Amino acid sequence: MGVNLMRYEPDYAVSPGDILQERLEAMGMSQAEFAKKCQTSQQVINQIIHGRHSVTPEIAIRFEEITGVSANIWSNLEASYRLHAPGQAKGRRTKQDRSDHQGG
User: Fold this and answer.
1) Is pLDDT at 10 greater than 90 in this prediction?
2) Of 20, 51, 53, 95, which has the fewest Cβ atoms less than 10 A away?
3) Is there a domain that residue 2 lies in?
4) Which tens digit of pLDDT belongs to each residue from 38-85?
5) CATH code assigned at 59
6) How many domains does the chain have?
């Protein structure tokens, strides 16, 4: 007889952009300075921070070189965020819909 294991799977994901913003603040580095070190545009860095641009494998490697956070972590954050983002957005819409129907 096998043992049933419950898997813990959070219903949310942290954006790699949130982590990047925290790292930049901790390093005392502006988006512009970080972008220059990454050899990418400030616009791309800003879009990553706001969840509008993915952290590609190439970008993850550059982030690792500058932040010291492993490229695997950046890639896993990205994958987890992209898998959960549609569900999180649906949850927000559902809460808003309920609020609208209740008059508030």
Assistant:
1) no
2) 95
3) no
4) 999 999 999 999 999 999 999 999 999 999 999 999 999 999 998 887
5) 1.10.260.40
6) 1
